[in-house]
Amino acid sequence: MSIIENPILLPILRTLVGTLIGKENLQLFDTVDWRDTSEFEYPEYYTSKNFHGITGGYLNATAPVTYDAVTRFAAPPNEIKQREKAIAAVKDKPQRILDLGCGTGSSTLMLKQAYPNAEITGLDISPYMLKMAEHKGKQANLNIDWQQGLAEATNFQDAEFESIAISFLFHETPVAISQAILQECHRLLQPGGQVIILDGNQQRLRHTPWLIKLFREPYSQVYAAGWINDWLKSAGFSEIETKPVGWVSQLSTAFKSNCSHLK
Predict the structure, then answer these.
(1) Domain positions in the chain
(2) For the domain 74-256, what is the CATH code?
(3) Cα(72)–Cα(250) distance, rounded to whole angstroms?
(4) Which tens digits make up the pLDDT trace of 161-206?
(5) Whose CA is closest to 97, among 85, 112, 81, 82?
(6) Are the C-beta atoms of 92 and 120 separated by less than 8 Å?
């Protein structure tokens, strides 16, 4: 008999899961209509892999209700403070900000709180993650535009945004897609626009393969073998800077060439 079939252990397991992901999220798992009606054409690199060891990756209801808890564990010692540092790195006061690969909207909500007068857009490929993001936005009474789409091939216009934030996305994509995403960022940014990237520390991860195995990320090994500064430079960005944050994360900033952001 497995744990989930054991009438004695099942309540204990459910309590543990509820503690880790939050009782509200556990209720959402049971009550939200998670059906995917988007008719979106998902790329093979996304559908063929299991992220965080979850069958189906981010294309099921388990992903959004567990993601925030997993991220807190995977970005020690304080994931929220790392997101705050990323937002603090935003220059000037942008009026149009894109959170690319927004997931459950954690950084998106923080961006809107930091820039309440700005138009904030959160884009993600997973309709399940977007449902959770929209729920969190409504709970916080924040007006955010949530859209489904590919980070490497959006439907936005050229130079539509002043700032683009990307959090914990590149370690979950093949290197070629990561580079395509940065090229798309360059297209979407206004001259002088800024990209801010929070993700795993590549230099540390390449020397700690046990972490990659622990979190069961299919693309983390090739991500760790690369260097974000080289990818940014190849995409046309300048004033590139990457520094460690937390224990196993890094924060990168870069600009689309223009001197208008300098004071």
Answers:
(1) 1-31, 74-256
(2) 3.40.50.150
(3) 15
(4) 999 999 999 999 999 999 999 999 999 999 999 999 999 999 999 9
(5) 112
(6) no
